[in-house]
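TASK: fixed-backbone design
INPUT:
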């Protein structure tokens, strides 16, 4: 069974009924489930997520000058504009990229770009929010599978989650580096969302841990996940691999201590 859904604005897919039931058991902490728009079902997650998020943002911010796409062709145009912007930001950097270059890369007129995105900041905001939701999708899957994993397996999946996403989406790295200079970016930051999910994962893995200790523990795990990202750039490769193994052992020990709470 394959189910498409949206949770708090993020789309994801679950491939079997066991994962779906596991996710529903913890839905009270995540929020309600609603069906994804029919026009986006079956489309790649990144494109669907970005378009869905732009539709949500546009409905809330029409007073800022951007217009929400009103039909399927408009949705596809927005997806093309965002893909072009992502490529430009990776190649030239955020500051050096112009709106004219984004429109040209997408094969669209500058007027079409401004029709949906009145500023370069609004383009970056849509992309960052879409990538944040991409991370949410992955964390949803980790959350659903947490009951089936050993402590060592959970440690490995957590350490690879953030690092692997950054490798697959270089534009995410570029945009995160400039996010602090964009004054009206995200209401809920990527860091806060990650801590929410980590708290839920830890509550499943270590049900005996006091509620007041969940958030601090989630912060510790998050910092270890960031350490895994930093290790990806270390050389030589043999030393990097040894350090990564030790980091996974450290996280496994920490998760084991949390699970020992009674």
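OUTPUT:
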């Amino acid at each position: 069974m394959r189910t498409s859904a949206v949770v708090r604005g993020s789309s994801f897919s679950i491939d079997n009924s066991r994962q779906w039931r596991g996710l529903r058991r913890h839905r009270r902490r995540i929020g309600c489930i609603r069906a994804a728009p029919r026009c986006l079902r079956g489309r790649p997650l990144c494109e669907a997520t970005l378009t869905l998020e732009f539709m949500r943002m546009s409905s809330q911010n029409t007073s800022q000058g951007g217009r929400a796409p009103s039909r399927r062709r408009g949705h596809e145009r927005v997806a093309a504009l965002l893909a072009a912007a992502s490529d430009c930001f990776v190649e030239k950097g955020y500051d050096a990229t112009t709106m004219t270059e984004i429109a040209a890369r997408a094969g669209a007129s500058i007027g079409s770009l401004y029709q949906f995105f009145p500023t370069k900041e609004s383009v970056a905001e849509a992309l960052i929010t879409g990538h944040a939701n991409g991370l949410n999708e992955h964390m949803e899957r980790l959350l659903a599978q947490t009951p089936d994993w050993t402590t060592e397996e959970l440690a490995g999946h957590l350490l690879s989650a953030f690092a692997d996403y950054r490798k697959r989406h270089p534009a995410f790295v570029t945009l995160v580096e400039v996010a602090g200079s964009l004054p009206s970016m995200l209401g809920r930051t990527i860091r806060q969302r990650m801590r929410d999910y980590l708290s839920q994962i830890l509550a499943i893995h270590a049900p005996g841990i006091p509620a007041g200790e969940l958030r601090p523990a989630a912060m510790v795990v998050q910092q270890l996940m960031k350490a895994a990202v930093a290790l990806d750039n270390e050389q030589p490769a043999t030393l990097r691999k040894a350090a990564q193994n030790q980091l996974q052992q450290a996280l496994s020990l920490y998760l084991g201590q949390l699970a020992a709470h009674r």
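COMMENT: Residues 1-49, 57-64 have pLDDT under 50 and may be disordered.
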